[in-house]
C-alpha cells in the first residue's frame, strides 16, 4: 500500500479505526435517548424521502418536454389539512416523548449519591462527599444513580458527558443538577459545551466509570482526610453559625437538624422545600428567605465563603441528624480550630 | 378566478377620514384629567392598600396612557390600521412579559 | 402582526388631484402621503414600545424578587421632583397637542408659541432630571460608578417606619438603581432627541413651513412627543411611588 | 437534466439595453450615495453585503482550516475564538438578516406591488448608511484586536470576563439592528399603503407576503435586542447590575431578552428566502403556486408563532422545567407552517411544465436542505433530545442547513432569478448550473458530517478537539473548500456578465410578476404609468393573453 501517500494512508486508517456514528452508550438513559433519536431520524428520512420523491417524480413527469402546457390548479383544502395534521401529529409525539425523557434526566431519583461540581475558567472541580477532590476528572461507580450538584464561580459553563447523553448548564450564583447512572465501566469524555472564554476548548476532562469495588478502592485511596461535612462543620463553627442555629427552643435561628428535604413555611406564607440550592442561597441572601417565626437578623455571608466552602456547609447541614454536636460546641464555647478529634464521633452525626 | 370589474378595482375606500381637527376644548379636558390622575396616583401611593397599591398605580398609569393615545395622539379618530398597530405593539410586549413569566413563576423556589 | 390587519385593509385611493409642491413623486395623492407617513411613525413607535418593553420586563421581574430593595430605593428618590416632572411633561404634551392644532388651523404665530412652550417645558424636565441625577451621584446611588449601601442600612429620616435593610438586601438596591438609570436615561435620551428636533421644527415653522396645509411632520413629531410622555407616565409610578405609605 | 428552457431572449444582434434606466439616469458617485431610488439602494446593499459575506466567509475558511487537525495549531485558542465570533456576528447581522430583504426585496418589492418607490426613500437610504456604520464598527472591532464573545454576547462572560472589544462590536450590532428596523418598517408601510389599484392583498406575490411577515418580526423583535445590547454595554462600561449575578441580576434574563429577538431573527432570515422560492418554483413550473392562501398565511403564522418559542434556546440553561415544556410545545407548532410550505411547493410542481434553469436548481437545493434543516430543528425542539444535542456540532449543522442550505441557496436563487431585471443582462447559464451543483455538493460535504460529529458529542466553539473526531472534521473542511469555490464562481461570472452577458429583455423567464412587465433594467420611476392590476399572482393565462396582445399590436 506504499503507493498511497502516508498522510492519506494515515487518514484512511484513522477513518476505519475511529469511524463511529454514535458515542458509546454508557448510562441508563443513553439507550432511551438513542431510541428517540432513531425515531426522529426515521421521521426525517421519511419526510425528506417524501419531499425528494415528489420533487424528482414531478420533475421527471412534468418536465417541459413531456408536459409543454401546465395545468393550473388552485390548491386543495384536503391536501393542506393532510400535510398540516400529519406533521403536527408526529411533532406532538416527539414533544411528548422528548418531554418524558427531559423530566427523567433532570429529576434525580431520591437515592442518588451526590457529587458537587464547581466550574471555573477553565477547569472542573469535583468534590465527593467523602472529601475527595478531583480536577478535570470525575470518578463514578457504575449501576448507581449519581447526582451532580453544580455551580459556576464565574461565567456560564456546561457540563456534558456525551457517552451518558447528559448535559446541563453550570450557572453562576445558583445550583443546577443533573443525574445519570453509568452502566459500563470505561473512561469517557467530559466537555464544557457552553462557550466560556479563551480556553473553552481545554475545559475538558474525563469521566471514569468504575465497578463499585474499584470505586470504593479509589475513594479510600484518594481521600484528603476529612469529608465535606466535616469541613463544613468546622466552617459552621468558625463562622459562629451555631450560636443561632443551636436547635434550642429559644434559639434565634431555625433548627437545622433534619431540615434538609423538609417543607418550611416562609415569612410571606409560602412553602419551600429545603434543597441544596435553597440552603446555599439562604446563607448568601438570608433576607430573601425569611423562615416564618424568626426575626430577620441573620447577616449575609456573601463574599466571605468560597463556593467550595458553601458546598461544605451545605453538605454538613444536609447530613445533620441531631443538634448534639452543635450544642456541644456551644456549651464548651470552643471554636473548633482543630479537626474533629475522633472520626468515629464525626460519623455519629453524618449519615452513612 | 373572477375577473374584477373596473369599478371594484378602483373602489377607493378611504381608510382615514379627512383630517379630524380635535377642538382645543377636548385637549383642555384631557390635560386637566391627566393632571388630576397624576395627583391621584401620588395620593394613592400614600395609602396603605396592600397589593392594590401596585395595581392602582398601574391602572392609573394605563388610564393616563390611554387618554394620551386616544386624544393627544388622535387614535380615537384614526383608521383601524392605526388602532391595530397600537394594539399589536402592546400585544407583543404582553407576549414578552407573559412568556418570560412562564419561566420566572415556575422556577423551583421562586428566585433562582 | 395579525391576519386581520391584512384582511381588513382595503386598497388605498389613487384619485388624481392637483400636485402641491410637498407631494413626493412616488405618492399619488396628498392623502396617501400623509397616511403613509403617519403609519410609518406609528410603526416606529411600535419599535419604541418594545425597546422600553425589554426594560419594563426586567423591572417587573426584579421588583418581585427584591421588593424591599425597590421600596428603599424608591424612597430615596425625591417625590416632589418626580411629580413635578410628570406635571411638566403632561403640560408639554398638552402644548404639543395645541401646537399640532395650531398647525391644523394654520396659525403660524400660535404654532410658534406652542412649540416654544414645549421646548421650554422639555428643557425644564431635563433640568429637573439632571438635578435628581446629580443628587443621586452625591448620595452614592450610581451603581458601578459611585455606589454605597450605607443609605439603605440606616433608617431614612423621611420614612421612619422603614426598617433599615440588611446588607444582602441593601446590595440589591443596585439592581433598582441600575434599572432606574437605564430607564430614566433612555427616556431622557429620547427627550434630548425630541427637544433637538423641536428646535429644528421651530426654525422651520418660523419660515411658515407647517401652516400651509402640510403639517405631517408636526403631526408625527407630536406622536413621538406624546409617546415619550407615555413612557414617563409609566416610569413615574413604577420608580417613584413604590409603597410611599410605609 | 433537461435542455428545454423557457428563456426567451430578444434577438441578440439587434437587442440593446434600454436607453434610459435607473442605472444611467444620473451619473457620478454622489448620484449613488445620495440616491432615494430603491433600486440603486438595493445595488448599494448588494455590493456591501457581498463584501461582508466574503469577510465572513474568509473567517469560516479559517475556522475550517484550524479544525483540520485536533490541536489548535494554526491559531491559538484565543484567535480561534475571535475568528468564530467575527464569523457569527458578520454572517448573522451583516449578511443573513439584510441579505434577501435589503437587496432583492428592496429592488423588487415596490415594483411587485406596483409602486414607484418604497414609502420612505430617505429612510431606506438611511438604513443603508446605518448598515455601513454597523459594518464599520464591526470591522473596527476586528481590526482593533477582535472580539471573542461569540455572536450571542452571553453575560456575564461578555460583561465582566473578557478584555476584547465587546462594546465596539455591540454598538455595531445595535446599529445594524436599526438598519434592519428601518428596512422592515419601510416594507410594511409600502405593502399597506403603496399598492397599485386593484392589487388586493390576495393578489400580492408570495414574495411580498413573506417579506411582510419578516418585516413584522424585524419591527417588533429588533428593539428588544437593541435595549438588551444597551444594557450589556452599560454593564460593561460602567458596571450597572441588571444581568450581573454578583449584584443580584439574573444572567438568564439576558438570555430571555436576547433570544426574544434572536429566535424571531432566524425567521427574519429564512422567510424572505421562502418568498424567493415561491416565485422561482412558480415561474419555472409555469404554474400558480399550489395553495396560495395556505402559503401566504403560513408566512404570517411563522411570524406570529415566532415570538412564542424563544426559550427553546435555553432548555438546559436553567429555565424551569415547566417553562421548557410550554416552549417545547409551541416550538412543535411553529414547525408546522414550514412543513406546509415545503409540501405546497412540491405540489406546485405537479402537472407543471418544468424547466431547470439555475434559479430552479437552487430552489430544489433549498427544498432538500431546508427540509433537513427544519426536521433537525424538531430534534432540538424535543426536550429530551435537546439535552444531548444542544451546544454540539449538531446544532451548528442544523442552523447551517437552515441558514446556508436554506437562506443562502434562496439568496443565490433570487440573485440569479432577478439578475436580468437588475442589470438587463443574463448570467452564463452553463457555468451557473455548474456553480449550483458545486455549491450543493460542497454544502452537504461540509455540514452533513457535522450532524454525526454533534451526535458523537463534539462541542461547538472548540479550537481543539479529541483526535477521534478528526476524520469527520477533515471531510467537513474538504467540503468547505468546495463550497468556497461554489460561492466564488457566481461572484466572478456575475461580474463578467455585467459587460458580456446576453441582453435579457424585459421578461426572459416569461414570469407573471409586475416587475417582469417593465423594461430591464427598469426606469427610475419603475412604471411609465401606474399599473392597474386585474389578475391574481401567478396568472399565466393572463400573461399569455397579454403577450399575444402585444405581439398583435406590435406585429
Describe this structure in words.
By secondary structure, chain A is an alpha+beta fold. Chain A folds into two domains: 22-63 and 77-224, Sandwich (Immunoglobulin-like); 228-349, Cytochrome Bc1 Complex, Chain D, domain 2, CATH 1.10.760.10. In chain A, 38% of the residues lie in helices and 18% in strands. Chain A is built from nine helices and twelve strands. Chain A has helices at 6-18, 30-61, 77-106, 212-221, 228-238, 276-284, 307-318, 324-331, 343-349; strands spanning 113-120, 123-127, 133-135, 137-141, 145-152, 157-161, 166-170, 176-181, 186-192, 205-210, 263-265, 271-273. A five-stranded mixed sheet of chain A has the order 3-2-1-5-8, covered by helices on one side. Chain A has a five-stranded mixed sheet with strand order 4-10-9-6-7. In chain A, strand 1 (113-120) and strand 2 (123-127) form a beta hairpin. The longest helix of chain A has 32 residues, at 30-61. Residues 333-352 of chain A have low confidence and may be disordered. By secondary structure, chain B is an all-alpha fold. Chain B folds into two domains: 21-77; 78-112. Chain B contains four helices and no strands. The longest helix of chain B is centred in the C-terminal third of the chain and has 25 residues, at 80-104. A two-stranded antiparallel ribbon of chain C has the order 1-2. Chain C starts with a helix and ends in a 6-residue tail after the last helix. Chain C has a single domain (51-240), classed as Four Helix Bundle (Hemerythrin (Met), subunit A) (Up-down Bundle), CATH 1.20.120. Chain C is an all-alpha fold. By secondary structure, chain D is an all-alpha fold. Chain D has one domain: Up-down Bundle (Cytochrome C Oxidase, Chain A). Chain D is globular and about 80 Å long. The chains are: A alpha+beta (352), B mainly alpha (112), C mainly alpha (246), D mainly alpha (555). The interface between A and D is large, with 91 and 97 residues.
Radius of gyration of chain B: 22 Å
The CATH superfamily of the largest domain in chain A appears as Cupredoxins -  blue copper proteins
* Rg measurement of chain A, Å: 28 Å
Order of helical and strand elements of chain A: HHHEEEEEEEEEEHHEEHHHH
Fraction of residues in helix of chain A = 25-40%
Strand order of the largest sheet of chain A: 3-2-1-5-8
Average pLDDT confidence of chain B is 80
Task: Report the span from N to C terminus of chain A.
Answer: 61 Å
Query: Low-confidence segments of chain A, ≥5 residues, pLDDT <50?
Result: 333-352
Oligomeric state of the chains present here: heterotetramer
Output the number of helix runs of chain B: 4
| General shape of chain B | flat
Biggest chain contact: A-D, 91 and 97 residues
Q: State the distance separating the first and last CA atoms of chain B.
A: 59 Å
Globally, the shape of chain A reads elongated
Main beta-sheet strand count, sense and barrel state of chain A: 5 strands, mixed
Q: Can you tell me the CATH architecture of the largest domain in chain A?
A: Sandwich
Per the CATH scheme, the topology name of the largest domain in chain A is: Immunoglobulin-like
Amino acid at each position: 500500500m506504499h503507493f498511497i501517500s502516508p498522510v492519506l494512508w494515515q487518514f484512511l486508517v484513522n477513518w476505519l479505526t475511529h469511524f463511529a456514528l454514535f458515542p458509546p452508550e454508557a448510562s441508563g438513559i443513553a439507550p432511551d435517548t438513542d431510541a428517540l433519536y432513531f425515531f426522529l431520524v426515521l421521521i426525517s428520512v421519511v419526510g425528506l424521502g417524501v419531499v425528494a420523491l415528489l420533487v424528482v417524480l414531478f420533475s421527471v413527469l412534468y418536465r417541459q418536454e413531456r408536459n409543454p402546457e401546465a395545468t393550473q390548479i388552485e390548491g386543495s383544502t384536503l391536501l393542506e389539512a393532510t400535510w398540516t395534521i400529519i406533521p403536527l401529529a408526529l411533532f406532538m409525539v416527539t414533544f411528548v416523548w422528548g418531554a418524558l425523557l427531559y423530566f427523567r434526566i433532570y429529576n434525580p431519583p431520591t437515592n442518588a449519591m451526590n457529587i458537587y461540581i464547581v466550574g471555573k475558567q477553565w477547569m472542573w472541580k469535583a468534590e465527593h462527599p467523602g472529601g475527595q477532590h478531583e480536577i478535570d476528572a470525575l470518578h463514578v461507580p457504575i449501576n448507581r444513580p449519581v447526582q451532580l450538584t453544580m455551580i459556576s464561580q464565574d461565567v456560564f459553563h456546561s457540563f456534558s458527558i456525551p457517552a451518558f447523553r447528559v448535559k446541563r448548564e453550570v450557572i453562576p450564583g445558583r445550583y443546577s443538577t443533573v443525574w445519570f447512572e453509568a452502566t459500563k465501566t470505561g473512561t469517557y469524555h467530559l466537555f464544557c459545551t457552553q462557550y466560556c472564554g479563551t480556553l473553552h476548548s481545554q475545559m475538558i476532562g474525563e469521566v471514569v466509570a468504575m465497578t463499585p469495588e474499584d470505586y470504593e478502592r479509589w475513594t479510600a485511596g484518594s481521600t484528603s482526610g476529612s469529608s465535606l461535612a466535616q469541613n463544613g462543620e468546622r466552617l459552621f463553627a468558625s463562622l459562629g453559625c451555631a450560636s443561632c442555629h443551636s436547635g434550642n427552643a429559644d434559639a434565634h435561628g431555625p433548627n437545622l437538624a433534619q431540615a434538609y428535604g423538609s417543607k418550611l413555611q416562609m415569612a410571606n406564607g409560602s412553602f419551600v422545600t429545603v434543597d441544596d440550592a435553597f440552603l446555599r442561597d439562604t446563607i448568601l441572601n438570608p433576607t430573601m428567605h425569611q423562615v416564618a417565626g424568626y426575626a430577620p437578623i441573620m447577616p449575609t455571608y456573601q463574599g466571605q465563603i468560597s463556593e467550595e466552602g458553601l458546598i461544605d456547609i451545605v453538605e454538613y447541614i444536609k447530613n445533620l441528624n441531631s443538634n448534639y454536636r452543635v450544642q456541644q460546641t456551644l456549651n464548651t464555647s470552643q471554636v473548633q480550630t482543630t479537626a474533629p478529634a475522633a472520626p468515629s464521633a464525626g460519623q455519629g452525626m453524618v449519615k452513612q | 378566478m373572477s375577473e374584477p370589474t373596473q369599478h371594484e378595482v378602483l373602489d377607493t375606500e378611504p381608510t382615514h377620514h379627512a383630517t379630524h381637527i380635535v377642538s382645543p376644548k377636548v385637549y383642555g379636558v384631557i390635560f386637566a384629567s391627566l393632571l388630576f390622575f397624576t395627583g391621584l396616583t401620588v395620593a394613592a401611593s400614600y395609602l396603605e392598600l396592600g397589593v392594590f397599591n401596585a395595581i392602582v398605580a398601574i391602572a392609573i398609569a394605563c388610564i393616563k396612557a390611554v387618554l394620551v393615545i386616544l386624544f393627544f395622539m388622535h387614535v380615537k379618530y384614526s383608521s383601524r390600521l392605526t388602532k391595530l398597530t397600537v394594539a399589536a405593539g402592546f400585544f407583543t410586549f404582553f407576549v414578552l412579559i407573559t412568556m418570560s413569566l412562564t419561566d420566572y413563576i415556575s422556577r423551583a423556589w421562586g428566585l433562582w | 402582526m395579525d391576519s386581520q390587519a391584512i384582511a381588513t385593509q382595503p386598497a388605498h385611493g389613487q384619485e388624481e388631484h392637483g400636485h402641491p409642491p410637498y407631494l413626493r413623486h412616488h405618492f399619488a395623492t396628498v392623502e396617501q402621503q400623509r397616511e403613509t407617513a403617519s403609519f410609518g411613525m406609528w410603526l416606529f413607535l411600535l419599535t419604541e414600545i418594545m425597546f422600553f418593553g425589554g426594560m419594563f420586563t426586567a423591572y417587573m421581574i426584579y421588583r418581585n424578587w427584591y421588593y424591599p430593595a425597590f421600596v428603599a430605593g424608591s424612597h430615596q428618590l425625591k417625590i416632589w421632583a418626580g411629580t413635578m416632572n410628570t406635571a411638566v411633561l403632561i403640560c408639554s404634551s398638552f402644548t404639543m397637542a395645541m401646537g399640532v392644532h395650531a398647525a391644523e388651523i394654520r396659525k403660524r404665530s400660535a404654532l410658534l408659541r406652542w412649540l416654544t412652550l414645549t421646548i421650554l417645558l422639555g428643557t425644564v424636565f431635563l433640568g429637573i432630571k439632571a438635578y435628581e441625577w446629580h443628587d443621586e451621584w452625591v448620595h452614592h446611588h450610581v451603581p458601578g460608578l459611585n455606589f454605597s449601601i450605607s443609605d439603605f442600612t440606616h433608617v431614612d429620616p423621611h420614612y421612619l417606619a422603614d426598617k433599615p435593610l440588611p446588607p444582602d438586601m441593601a446590595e440589591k438596591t443596585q439592581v433598582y438603581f441600575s434599572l432606574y438609570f437605564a430607564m430614566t436615561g433612555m427616556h431622557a435620551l429620547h427627550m434630548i432627541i425630541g427637544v433637538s428636533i423641536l428646535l429644528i421644527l421651530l426654525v422651520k415653522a418660523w419660515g411658515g413651513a407647517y401652516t400651509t396645509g402640510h403639517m405631517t411632520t408636526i403631526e408625527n413629531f407630536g406622536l413621538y412627543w406624546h409617546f415619550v410622555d407615555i413612557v414617563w407616565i409609566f416610569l413615574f409610578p413604577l420608580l417613584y411611588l413604590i409603597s410611599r405609605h410605609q | 437534466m433537461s435542455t428545454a428552457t423557457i428563456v426567451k431572449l430578444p434577438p441578440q444582434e439587434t437587442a440593446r439595453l434600454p436607453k434610459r434606466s435607473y442605472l444611467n439616469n444620473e451619473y457620478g458617485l454622489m448620484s449613488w450615495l445620495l440616491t432615494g431610488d430603491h433600486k440603486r439602494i438595493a445595488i448599494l446593499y448588494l455590493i456591501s453585503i457581498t463584501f461582508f459575506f466574503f469577510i465572513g466567509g474568509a473567517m469560516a475558511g479559517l475556522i475550517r482550516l484550524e479544525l483540520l487537525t485536533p490541536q489548535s495549531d494554526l491559531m491559538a485558542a484565543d484567535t480561534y475564538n475571535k475568528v468564530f465570533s467575527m464569523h457569527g456576528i458578520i454572517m448573522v447581522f451583516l449578511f443573513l438578516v439584510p441579505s434577501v430583504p435589503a437587496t432583492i426585496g428592496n429592488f423588487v418589492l415596490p415594483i411587485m406591488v406596483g409602486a414607484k418607490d418604497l414609502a420612505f426613500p430617505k429612510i431606506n437610504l438611511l438604513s443603508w448608511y446605518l448598515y455601513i456604520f454597523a459594518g464599520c464598527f464591526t470591522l473596527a472591532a476586528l481590526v482593533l484586536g477582535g472580539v471573542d464573545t461569540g455572536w450571542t454576547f452571553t453575560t456575564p462572560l461578555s460583561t465582566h470576563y473578557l478584555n476584547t472589544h465587546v462594546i465596539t462590536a455591540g454598538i455595531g450590532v445595535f446599529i445594524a439592528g436599526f438598519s434592519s428596523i428601518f428596512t422592515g418598517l419601510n416594507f410594511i408601510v409600502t405593502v399597506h399603503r403603496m399598492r397599485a389599484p386593484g392589487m388586493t392583498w390576495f393578489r400580492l406575490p408570495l414574495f411580498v407576503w413573506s417579506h411582510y411577515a419578516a418585516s413584522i418580526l424585524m419591527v417588533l423583535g429588533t428593539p428588544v435586542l437593541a435595549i438588551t445590547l444597551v444594557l450589556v454595554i452599560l454593564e460593561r462600561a460602567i458596571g450597572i447590575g441588571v444581568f450581573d449575578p454578583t449584584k443580584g441580576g439574573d444572567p438568564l434574563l439576558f438570555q430571555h431578552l436576547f433570544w426574544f429577538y434572536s429566535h424571531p431573527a432566524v425567521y427574519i432570515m429564512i422567510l424572505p428566502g421562502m418568498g424567493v422560492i415561491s416565485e422561482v418554483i412558480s415561474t419555472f413550473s409555469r404554474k400558480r403556486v399550489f395553495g396560495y392562501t395556505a402559503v401566504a398565511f403560513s408566512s404570517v403564522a411563522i411570524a406570529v408563532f415566532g415570538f412564542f418559542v424563544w426559550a427553546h434556546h435555553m432548555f438546559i440553561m436553567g429555565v424551569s422545567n415547566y417553562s421548557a415544556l410550554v416552549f417545547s410545545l409551541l416550538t412543535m407548532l411553529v414547525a408546522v407552517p414550514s412543513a406546509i410550505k415545503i409540501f405546497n411547493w412540491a405540489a406546485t410542481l405537479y402537472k407543471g411544465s418544468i424547466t431547470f434553469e439555475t434559479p430552479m436548481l437552487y430552489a430544489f437545493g433549498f427544498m432538500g436542505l431546508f427540509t433537513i434543516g427544519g426536521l433537525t430543528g424538531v430534534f432540538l425542539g424535543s426536550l429530551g433530545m435537546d439535552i444531548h444535542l444542544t451546544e454540539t456540532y449538531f446544532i451548528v449543522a442544523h442552523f447551517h442547513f437552515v441558514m446556508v442550505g436554506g437562506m443562502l441557496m434562496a439568496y443565490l436563487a433570487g440573485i440569479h432569478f432577478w439578475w436580468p431585471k437588475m442589470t438587463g443582462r443574463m448570467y452564463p447559464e452553463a457555468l451557473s448550473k455548474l456553480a449550483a451543483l458545486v455549491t450543493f455538493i460542497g454544502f452537504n460535504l461540509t455540514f452533513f458530517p457535522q450532524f454525526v460529529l454533534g451526535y458523537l458529542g463534539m462541542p461547538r466553539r472548540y479550537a481543539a478537539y479529541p483526535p477521534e473526531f478528526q476524520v469527520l472534521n477533515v471531510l467537513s473542511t474538504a467540503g468547505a473548500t468546495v463550497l468556497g469555490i461554489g460561492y466564488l464562481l457566481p461572484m466572478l461570472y456575475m461580474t463578467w456578465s455585467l459587460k458580456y452577458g446576453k441582453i435579457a429583455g424585459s421578461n426572459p423567464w416569461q414570469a407573471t410578476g409586475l416587475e417582469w412587465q417593465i423594461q430591464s433594467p427598469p426606469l427610475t420611476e419603475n412604471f411609465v404609468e401606474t399599473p392597474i392590476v386585474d389578475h391574481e399572482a401567478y396568472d399565466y393565462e393572463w400573461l399569455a393573453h397579454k403577450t399575444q396582445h402585444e405581439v398583435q399590436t406590435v406585429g
